[in-house]
Description:
By secondary structure, the chain is mainly alpha-helical. It has a single domain, classed as Tetracycline Repressor, domain 2 (Orthogonal Bundle). The protein has nine helices and no strands. Helix 4 runs parallel beside helix 7, helix 5 runs antiparallel to helix 7 and helix 7 crosses helix 8. The chain is elongated and about 55 Å long.
Amino acid sequence: MEPLRRRALIDAAIAAIGERGSLDVTMSDIAGRAGVSAALAHHYFGAKDQLLEATMRAILADLASEGRAALRGVGVARERLGRIVAVSFSDSQFRAEIVAAWLAFYVEAQRSPPLRRLLRIYARRLNSNLVDALIAFLPRERARHVAEGAAAMIDGLYIRRALAHSAPDAPTAISLVEEYFNLQLGESGFS
């Protein structure tokens, strides 16, 4: 039961953060959503900060798992690049409550070393995947530069979505990042 209850609390934290648009939620709010007592939530996670860190870890683990599955067996660099972008805006990631959680975690990372560390891991992983695909078209330094721009675009599209108060539009987000790649790599025979 413990893994199920832990995941229920994490899912409830995502829902509560998504509804509030911030980390200004209590353990009681989260526990109530998960159908458990606040005492049980504290038993599993200690303080709210530990639950929030576990929530961020779960979001990152889900993203990494989805990314590994999408990239499994794909050898063509162009297809790898497209799948990395598609995973970033997949239905499981680019939905209102996850977008709100990402924005809240970015803000909280300014004061929380554990969350800052998790966001750095995410940034390094995304950058590494992008560079790995881009070096088929560009010298390594240029690939790093283009990867940095694409990662900034992905993160920026999440921020814009969070501030728009509208339904996520994954096809448009994917199209914008793909257009960026086409512009950056046009001279390399990419497009």
